[in-house]
Amino acid sequence: MKEFVIQVKNVKDSLKDFADTYKKVSKGEKVKPIEKITFVDIDTFRRFATSKRIELLKVIKDKKPRSIKELGNLTKRDYKSVNIDLKILQELNLVEIDKENYRSVPRTKYDSITIKIPLTC
Fold this sequence. Notes:
Layout: E1 3-8, H1 11-26, E2 36-39, H2 42-48, H3 51-63, H4 68-75, H5 79-91, E3 95-100, E4 103-108, E5 112-116
Parallel strand pairs: 1-2, 1-5
Antiparallel strand pairs: 3-4
């Protein structure tokens, strides 16, 4: 099962994580790669994680539409809105768009997305 991690972390904590990983790599230690994206605050995360985008990810994974138009039909959304959301998801590396027989076929590379939000200040 391939997992993607979305986390909310301030810049200071993100830089500390980077420094810790860099030290391990510099010492020759193996570091397991984690595919993730970090948002600096919950408001930024909420602008990304709309219910419509989450729905697109679920439908792509479950129904495996053969085109963006089919994805729009499955979600009862117009092509333009679906395409805009797909471009955002693609920039975040959550979706790939493959060209097949003159069609743009959306695919997700992950089976699950884990969201980590710290409850400490």
